[in-house]
Design goal:
Elements: E1 2-6, H1 13-24, E2 28-31, H2 38-47, E3 53-55, H3 64-71, E4 77-79, E5 84-88, E6 91-95, H4 99-107, E7 113-115, E8 123-127, E9 130-134, E10 146-151, E11 157-161
Parallel strand pairs: 1-2, 2-3, 3-4, 6-7, 7-9
Antiparallel strand pairs: 1-10, 5-6, 8-9, 10-11
Helix pairs in contact: 1-2, 2-3
Length: 162
């Protein structure tokens, strides 16, 4: 299965719209936090109808009550709180916003893939037998707007710039 991974969209709906064609080709989508506003959740829910979307909280998700209310109107969106523990196509996946927590999750031996964000830097590396993945920032604050595409069969990552 193909899994789209993004993080740190920070209300940049223009970059989110540019990412949508890539995300629509996925079997599932993971957002590693810092959506920021409820309208980003609405855009994901409407733009990716029928595709499972897994979201964790970031430090800039300032209105969790409204984000939760909007997410509840889309059956394909699941809010996981601070940490997501999911399995997709036999791949055990951990998701958190913060690099230090993600590294601990990866070192735990409980996951095949751990996704994170927060530092706005794309990263792909191994912690033991676990792939540690930061898709970078979608918002483009540091000049590049990126997301990652993960293939559960080949275990390969493709970084996409939008």
């Amino acid at each position: 299965m193909k899994i789209g991974v993004l993080s740190d969209s920070h209300d940049n709906i223009w970059k989110l719209d540019a990412a949508m064609p890539h995300l629509r080709a996925m079997d599932a989508v993971i957002h590693c936090g810092d959506l920021c506003a409820p309208f980003v959740v609405k855009r994901l829910g409407e733009g990716l109808s029928g595709i499972p979307i897994h979201i964790v909280w970031g430090n800039n998700d300032g209105d969790p009550w409204r984000i939760s209310r909007v997410a509840a109107t889309y059956p394909n969106i699941q809010l996981h709180g601070e940490v997501a523990r999911i399995e997709i196509d036999g791949v055990r996946i951990g998701v958190n916003h913060y690099p230090e927590i993600a590294r601990d999750l990866a070192r735990s031996g409980s996951y095949d893939l751990v996704c994170f964000g927060h530092d706005h830097s794309a990263y792909e590396g191994m912690e033991g037998s676990c792939l540690l993945l930061n898709p970078g920032e979608l918002m483009g604050m540091n000049g590049r707007s990126t997301l990652a595409l993960y293939d559960s069969q080949t275990k390969l990552v493709q970084m996409i710039e939008v």
